[in-house]
Structures are given as C-alpha cells and as structure tokens.
Write a structure and sequence with these properties.
single chain; transcription regulation; Arc Repressor Mutant, subunit A; D-Maltodextrin-Binding Protein, domain 2; globular; transcription; alpha/beta; DNA-binding; binds (2S)-2-hydroxy-2-methyl-3-oxobutanoic acid; 3 domains; 295 residues; LysR_HTH_N; five-stranded mixed beta sheet
C-alpha cells in the first residue's frame, strides 16, 4: 500500500470527485481510479460506490479513512523524529507561499532558518495565496504563509506576522477603464472588475460591492493576486489586491490606488500549519523563525 494512494484517497473523500482530486494531487483521473481499485483489492472492501454521476463513501470506506489518516500521521511523526539526529535538525520541510511572499516575507525567515539549521532542506512551493489553507489541510505542504481566513478551522495554528492593507487599483494610463473612473459620479458598476476566484480577496471584493449596493461587472475571474495586478496594468479593468502584491509587482507603475477603495479592511498575513504538526521539530523550527519576525 502506497502512502500516495492514502493521500489521494483522503483527498477524494473530501471532493468526492475523481477529476478534481486527480488534478489537486498531480495525477490523472485514470491513474487515480487504478489507485483506488488497488486499495480496494488490498483491503478486500468496496471503499467508494461510484457511478457516472456520483461518488459515495461506503461504511468500509469510512473506517479506511480513519486508518489512512492515522497511518499518515504516524508516518509524519516517524519521519520528523528520525530526522532529528542529536540536536541537529535535518530533513525536508515543505513550505507554501505566494510568489509575492517569496520576495516580501519569506527571505528573512529562510535566512535565519538556514543559519540555525543548515541541514534542513526547504521545498518551497509557490502559488495563489488563496490555495495555502487547502494545501495544508490536504497535507501536501507542512507550513505556509497565508492570509488569515475569515473562519480559521480549529485544527489550524495561525500566527500573525504582518498586517497588510488591500487597495482597489485601476490602470494608471489613458484607456477606457481609466476614463470611466475619471468621470464625475463614477458608475462603478459599469467598470469591468478583475475578480479573485476564491479566498479572502474574493470575500472582501464581494463585501465592497455589497456595501456600495453595486453588482460587479466581472471582466475575468483569476487565481492569484499577481494576476489581478497584471490584468489591471493591461487596462482590462479595476481590481482588489493586497498592497504588498502591488508594491512587489513588476508592473506597479502601470496601476494606481483608487480612493474608492480606502474603506476596505486590511488583513493579517501569518504563518500557518496544522495544530498537531506544531510539535514536529522542523515545522516548529520554521514557526519560531517566522514568529521572531514580529517581535
Ligand atoms: C496573502 C499573501 O500571501 C500575500 C503575500 O499577501 C499575497 O501574495 O497575496
């Protein structure tokens, strides 16, 4: 039985969707199907009832899910312990953050960590900020820098390292969008909006529209704050993005902050992992270095 199959099985019990889990676990739907079939052969049980339209966990599947979780936790614990030889920490730590956080917040943490523990190997994965929590929940990374979500799951540990304002931005050059903004009595509803697909930015954008009694005219829905800034810089519309992303963007000169967005609440950027992983030496080492930043 392979650990990867267990991880995929756990993920599949959450999505109940082969294509979505296959994509998230970087495999194909047929391979995932074979993996599940193999687990069923090995356990001698039907774990999931599936037809063309739905996937349902069986009673045996529920029991196997508990087994899969315990096995992965035990494996995690074992790896972390054996990697701690004497006082010197070594081994791999999977970290996730946005490309922006790689420039803005990760460098001092990694510098301190590598000075204190030169044998820790950091596997740094970058991606849309909105993916961080899911990556941690599904166990594909150990620790992440993330925005504090509106509802923090109670199995998550989160420590704030910075407070970051959001800004509403528009193009800083002559174009349809900037002309519409310039009009007296701007009709915000007519201006195309570059919308975040998920996460806190999505909910803050929805909230901004609601509080101004407007319906967004969505030009594009994008994943990743960096993409919002670059689409605004192309003149496609206006959008909401964290200041840190705007300031670190190579196209920052092409966008400007709009007064209309000054009422949007800032957010907390922090270090985040599963509560139960906080005791693991490598996770804890990273956590400590991230927390110092703020004290
Ligand atoms: C939320 C977060 O990770 C950042 C740094 O603000 C971002 O990339 O958007």
């Amino acid at each position: 039985m392979e650990l990867k199959s267990l991880r995929c099985f756990i993920h599949l019990t959450e999505t109940l969707h082969f294509a979505r889990t296959a994509e998230a676990m970087h495999t194909s739907a047929p391979t995932l199907s074979r993996m599940i079939k193999k687990l069923e052969d090995e356990t001698g049980c039907v774990l999931l009832e599936r037809d063309n339209r739905s996937v349902v966990l069986t009673e045996a599947g529920i029991q196997f899910l508990a087994f899969a979780r315990q096995t992965l936790d035990a494996w995690h614990g074992f790896k972390q312990q054996t990697q701690t030889s004497g006082k010197e920490l070594k081994g791999q730590l999977k970290v996730f953050c946005s490309v922006t956080a790689c420039y803005s917040h990760i460098p001092p943490i990694l510098t301190r960590l590598s000075q204190a523990y030169p044998k820790i190997e950091i596997l740094l994965e970058t991606g849309a900020a909105s993916l961080a929590m899911r990556k941690i929940e599904e166990g594909s990374v150990d620790i992440a820098l993330s925005a504090r979500p509106e509802h923090l799951a109670n199995n998550m540990a989160f420590h704030t390292i910075d407070n970051i304002p959001f800004s509403l931005i528009g193009p800083n050059f002559d174009c349809d969008t900037s002309n519409k903004i310039k009009q007296t009595d701007t009709d915000w509803q007519s201006i195309p909006f570059i919308m975040a697909d998920a996460g806190l930015t999505r909910s803050r954008s929805d909230k901004w529209f609601r509080s101004h009694h407007l319906k967004p005219n969505i030009y594009a829905t994008v994943t990743g704050h960096e993409a919002i800034v670059s689409m605004v810089a192309l003149g496609c519309g206006i959008g909401l993005a964290p200041d840190i992303v705007i300031e670190n963007s190579p196209v920052r000169e092409k966008v400007k902050k709009l007064e209309a967005g000054t009422d949007i609440e800032p957010f907390e950027l922090g270090v985040c992992c599963l509560q139960k992983h906080l005791v693991e030496p490598l996770v804890n080492a990273f956590w400590q270095e991230a927390v110092i930043e703020n004290t």
